[in-house]
Amino acid sequence: MSSPKFPKMLNYEALKQQFSDEPSTNHTTRSNEDALNFEQERQAKTQGLTGSRLRSYAFAKLTRREYSKADLIEKLCLYAANREEVIALVEELAEENYQSDQRVAEMTVRSQIRQGKGPNRIKMALRSKHLDNTLVTEDLKEIDWYEQAYQLKVKKYGTEVSKDPKIKAKQIRFLQYRGFEMDVIMKAISRKTDDFDG
Q1: Which of 18-32, 126-140, 173-187 holds the top average pLDDT?
Q2: Which residues contact 106 (CB under 8 A, 6 or more apart)?
Q3: Would you give the distance in Å from CA 196 to the centre of its chain?
Q4: Gap between the Cα atoms of 24 and 188, Å rounded
Q5: What is the pLDDT of residue 22?
Q6: What is the SS3 assignment for 99?
Q7: Where is this region: Disordered (predicted)?
Q8: Which of 8, 62, 154, 178 is most buried as measured by Cβ atoms within 10 A of its Cβ?
Q9: 162-193 residue pLDDT tens
Q10: 83-87, long-range: CB within 8 Å, 24+ apart, which pairs?
């Protein structure tokens, strides 16, 4: 048969080598980093870390992102040989300001506000990270929630104040879901554009 129906079988090994060993430094560095992180975690899991190895692993975690004290303890306990050692280490890291619940709380608030979340959703986010609301009480007081809610309403529904009960109900549900209080919501959805002057 001189003209076969199917082309020659592909040499997958050659193709894999050709495309995976490209000298793209960014890709290579990234995969090397991922491989190291994976290897680090694998070793940590199998060995039950203690002492300087546990400390190094904690620092490696904290250089990648901020953790609340409770989250860091839980994360390290997955790999440590001894829970009491983890708790003592995390307390020490907090005293030396390598770990800070205050920083994590402030970052959470900023991030949530950027996403258009109200105070109730922010408090939920703080609880999910095992953080106390009192860490950011002052920050939360300084925010103009009415303005935040109004800007969200305008972005989604425009500046017109609707008389239609169905549209009003939709706007209320939207802002409630975002975590705003009812009094703020009612003010935001009934604010007219000329209220800017007053």
Answers
A1: 173-187
A2: 135, 136, 139
A3: 34
A4: 52
A5: 44
A6: coil
A7: 18-49
A8: 178
A9: 888 899 999 999 999 999 999 999 999 888 87
A10: 85/50, 85/54, 86/54
The pLDDT mean for the chain works out to 80
Q: How many helices (H) and strands (E) does the chain have?
A: 11, 0
Look up residue 114 and give its two tokens.
């950027």
The three-state secondary structure class of 161 is coil
Instruction: Report CA torsion sign: 132, 134, 137, 139.
Output: negative
Q: How many angstroms separate the CA atoms of 67 and 129, rounded?
A: 8
153: nearest Cα among 167, 174, 181, 138:
174
Q: Work out the average pLDDT over 146-162.
A: 90
Name 49's bridge partners. Answer: 80
Three-state DSSP class for 49? strand
- DSSP-derived secondary structure letter, 98: S
Per the CB < 8 A criterion, the answer to whether 99 and 93 are in contact is yes
Q: Name the nearest CA neighbour of 99 among 128, 80, 73.
A: 73
Tell me, what amino acid is at 20?
A: S
Max alpha carbon distance in the chain (Å)?
88
Q: Which amino acid is at 49?
A: L
Q: What is the residue-wise DSSP string for 82-122?
A: -HHHHHHHHHHHHHTTSS-HHHHHHHHHHHHHHTT--HHHH
- The alpha-helical segments, DSSP class H, found in the chain are 12-20, 25-47, 51-64, 69-77, 83-95, 101-114, 119-128, 137-142, 145-157, 165-177, 182-190
Mean pLDDT across 7-28 = 52
